[in-house]
Amino acid sequence: MSFTRRNKYFEEYLSPRSANGIGDILATKLTPDIEGIYRDDLLQHHGRKPEIPEVQAVLLSHAHADHANYISFLHKDIPIYCGETCKYILEAVEEQSQRDIESEVLNYKKRPAYKFEYRNPPIERTFHTFRTGKKINIDSIEVEPIHNDHSVPGSYSFIIHTSQGPIVYTGDLRMHGKHAHMTDDFIKAAEEVKPIAMITEGTRIETGKTNESEEKVYQTSKKELKDAKQLSIVDFNFKDVDRFTTFYQIAKDLGKKLVINFKHACYLERYHKDKKLKTSDSRDENILLLKPKRLTGTYIDEDYQDWYIKKRLNYPNILTAEEIAKKPDKYIVVLNFWYFNQLVDLKPYRGKYIHSLSEPFNEEMEISYDRMVNWINLYKMHFIQSHCSGHISGYDLFEMIKTIKPKIIYPIHTEHPEMFKKLNIKTYLIEEEKNYKL
Ligand SMILES: [Zn+2]
């Protein structure tokens, strides 16, 4: 799924209609019209005959929306292979999201959705999960998933053994993160197989050497939050478990409580289930849950209809914005821009605001960013940018490719595929809806 393409035609209140099957998606070319991959119900709804699936499996590298979401349209008989942790994250996303045609990754409701069928259970997709080191056989092809480091746990690269030779796919990765050794494991394995081709990401190919790191985010943010006498607000992507750990640790070090919301709790409980991630539970002594103001605005149980909130209302560590405002120096609140109206109750006058996300890189993001700055100014907060990217720098990318030495490069997930030509390795600038044979 391409956010850029989606933004070309759609925005917050203008989205593809679930009521039109796959019609709006294909008409705006959000996905290519490939035979034998789409759901029967969506094709039929659009006036087409069902097609026999011609794809044996889909490999999902990680749980970011641009990689995972459009699994929603795939035929139910196409199995999905992904990491165990990746599946946990997809479950956390599902728990707190409203069903719509673009977010039916784990399961889907047959369309058209008639009232009399409303209570029918959704159709579950087949997921096969793996951990690094496991090998997967799909027809005559053997696939080796190898863990890498990215801004979401459960992220993988793949070595695909074909009759013509091995192909490597990087997925999304980086070499400056907390678990850079996992990316090193992939690079080493990829180098050893002498790949005939490499499909690679290149989101930041235009950047040179950077000295960013999660440790730097920790140090900068901690320094800023240390003497905060007023309320501190931070914003980061909760799918990034390393960033959560950074702010959890800072809160602990400074004797403050980290306040998260009920959606965050869905993620945290899944991370906690995964022993390898060593993450605290949502009821940990250093974590508090912020109760949102809904309906009557009086915080009574009947105000909460979302199941993901309702089932957690008995947690002992829930508090309200008004309670936080009484002792502002005791808390660090994780608050995403979309919930900034809660600042009215939190009253973070002259507090610190840490923006631990990437800076805006398109027009839409800039509009939201300007609005965010207005809120920060309204409360005279001190703005701090503290972030490290989930993607490999251009310098590290070139070093990685020079080590792996593929015979051919297929750049994807980049706005500058032509920059790969600097490497003097045969590079195909791929065109959409065209087949490439090895
Ligand atoms: Zn990603």
How would you summarize this macromolecular structure in one to three sentences?
The protein has 438 residues and is α/β, with parallel strands linked by helices. The chain has helices spanning 3-9, 23-27, 40-45, 65-68, 84-96, 180-192, 214-226, 241-253, 262-273, 307-310, 321-326, 343-346, 363-378, 394-404, and strands spanning 58-59, 80-83, 107-108, 123-124, 127-130, 136-138, 141-147, 156-162, 165-169, 197-200, 232-235, 257-260, 287-290, 318-319, 331-334, 352-355, 382-385, 408-411, 426-427. The protein has a seven-stranded mixed sheet with strand order 6-7-8-9-10-18-19.
Low-confidence stretches: none
Measure the end-to-end span: 25 Å
Would you count the extended β strands for me?
19
Distinct small molecules: zinc ion
Q: Spatial order of the strands in the main sheet?
A: 6-7-8-9-10-18-19
Proportion of helical residues: 25-40%
Give the number of helices: 14
Per the principal axes of the C-alpha atoms, what is the gross shape? globular
Mean pLDDT: 96
Q: Taking Cα atoms only, what radius of gyration do you get, to the nearest Å?
A: 23 Å
Q: Assign the structural class, choosing from mainly alpha, mainly beta, alpha/beta, alpha+beta, or little secondary structure.
A: alpha/beta
Biggest sheet descriptor: 7 strands, mixed
Beta-strand proportion: 15-25%
